[in-house]
Structures are given as C-alpha cells and as structure tokens.
C-alpha cells in the first residue's frame, strides 16, 4: 500500500503563505508568491483567486515555459498569456495525466472572499495517485463535507480565512491521512496558529518550514 505520508513529505514543498510546489512525475505549483529561488519550471501552475499574494504574474513568469499550463478562475486568468485554462467551481480537467477538481473557496462571515467572486480551491490527483486538497482562501464551508483527499492543505491564519480552530474542524471532517497548515507566518497568522491546529486535529499534521 502506498505510504501517503512519507511520499507526501518528499513531494510537497511549502513556499510560504499559500504557495506550494508539488514534485514527482509532474511539477505543479499552486499560488506561487515571492519565490526567492530558481524554481523548477512547472508543468502547470494553479491560481486560486485574484489577490496579489495568490495571483502573482511576476512570480509565475519565472516558473513557466511554452508548455506550462496556467489554471485560474476568470478574475485573474486575464493576467496571464499562453495556455490558460479558465475554471470555476464544479469543473474537472486533466492536464498531462494530473486530474484537477475545482472546488469552492469563500468567506461565510467576512467580506474578503465573497462567494460570487469565484475564488476556488483544488483537489489535485497526481500521476502517482495522491489526492491533494488545496483549500484556497476560505472559511469552513458546507462544500468541504464532499472533499475526499489524502492530503489537506488548509489555511489557519484567521482574519481573511479560517482560523486554527475552524481549520482543525475542516481537517477532522475531511479525514485526510495528512494535514498541512498554510496561510500563516507572512501576512497574518503565526507558528502558534499552526501549533494550535495540530493540537486540535484528530489526523496526522506536519508543520512545514517554508522553502525560500
């Protein structure tokens, strides 16, 4: 049986904030922001919404080549050229053997990410068969009850997204084999939020150090 946890820790790299690099047979970036290293060129780059710390054309330009596919909701797709796939919640697409399910991401009681803005999260099934849920900037929303994933990347910083308590509730509902906190340590949120998330989770949690 595939050891999802050990495999994930080798293939998932947190780049700070909500930015991740997923390695393996395909190179996948999600929300690259303030990348400070000569990163590998991505097979695909997924953008969750149009806020500058998630949709950063200046970062994307260093991580793409002619065959790189950009996946983004309508509000930020126009900021990119080349092969851009415009998506909305409910869409599913397959790119270079990677299946990408597009799911809602929005605030319930905050004004920063209204549902009608069309922000998204992604469930990425890698070529290796690991299902990774990147929640995007979101609160604890009813649609999370339908998420099935081996790994959940969840915001814990509060203010603009779920806080640590709500993120733990999400993790305990989704029941991934591994949960990784994100959206802390840069704009809002601290190591304490990540630790509180781990304390409240009933699933395995790994707090990553940002690779810069």
Q: What layout of secondary structure does this protein have?
A:
Elements: H1 4-11, E1 12-14, E2 20-22, E3 28-30, E4 44-46, H2 57-60, E5 69-72, H3 74-77, E6 83-86, E7 92-95, E8 98-104, E9 120-125, E10 131-134, E11 151-155, H4 164-174, E12 178-182, H5 191-200
Parallel strand pairs: 3-4, 4-5, 5-6, 10-11, 11-12
Antiparallel strand pairs: 1-2, 2-3, 7-8, 8-9, 9-10
Overview of the molecule:
There is one protein chain. With 212 residues, this protein is an alpha/beta fold. It has a single domain, classed as Metallo-beta-lactamase, Chain A (4-Layer Sandwich), CATH 3.60.15. The chain is 17% helix and 24% strand. It is built from five helices and twelve strands. Strand 2 and strand 3 form a beta hairpin. Helix 4 (164-174) runs parallel beside helix 5 (191-200). The model has no long low-confidence stretch (mean pLDDT 92).
- Helix count from the secondary structure assignment: 5
Distance between the termini: 33 Å
- Portion of residues within helices: 10-25%
The tally of structural domains comes to: 1
CATH topology: Metallo-beta-lactamase, Chain A
The CATH class label is Alpha Beta
Structure described in brief:
The protein is an alpha/beta fold and 212 residues long. It has helices at 4-11, 57-60, 74-77, 164-174, 191-200, and strands at 12-14, 20-22, 28-30, 44-46, 69-72, 83-86, 92-95, 98-104, 120-125, 131-134, 151-155, 178-182. 17% of the residues lie in helices and 24% in strands.
Output the keywords.
globular; 212 residues; 24% strand; six-stranded mixed beta sheet
């Amino acid at each position: 049986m595939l050891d999802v946890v050990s495999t994930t820790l080798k293939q998932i790299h947190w780049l700070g904030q909500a930015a991740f690099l997923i390695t393996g047979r395909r190179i996948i970036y999600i929300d690259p922001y303030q990348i400070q290293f000569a990163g590998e060129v991505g097979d695909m780059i997924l953008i969750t919404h149009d806020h500058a710390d998630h949709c950063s054309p200046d970062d994307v330009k260093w991580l793409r080549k002619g065959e790189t596919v950009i996946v983004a909701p309508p509000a930020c797709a126009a900021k990119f050229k080349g092969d851009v796939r415009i998506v909305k919640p409910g869409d599913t697409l397959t790119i270079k053997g990677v299946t990408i399910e597009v799911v809602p991401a929005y605030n319930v009681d905050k004004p920063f990410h209204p549902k009608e803005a069309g922000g998204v999260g992604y469930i990425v099934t890698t070529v290796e068969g690991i299902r990774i849920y990147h929640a995007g900037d979101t609160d604890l929303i009813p649609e999370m009850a339908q998420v099935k994933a081996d790994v959940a990347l969840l915001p814990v910083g509060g203010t603009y997204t779920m806080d640590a308590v709500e993120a733990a509730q999400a993790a305990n509902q989704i029941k991934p084999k591994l949960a990784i906190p994100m959206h802390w340590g840069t704009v809002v949120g601290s190591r304490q939020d990540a630790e509180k998330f781990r304390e409240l989770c009933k699933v395995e949690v790994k707090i990553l150090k940002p690779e810069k």
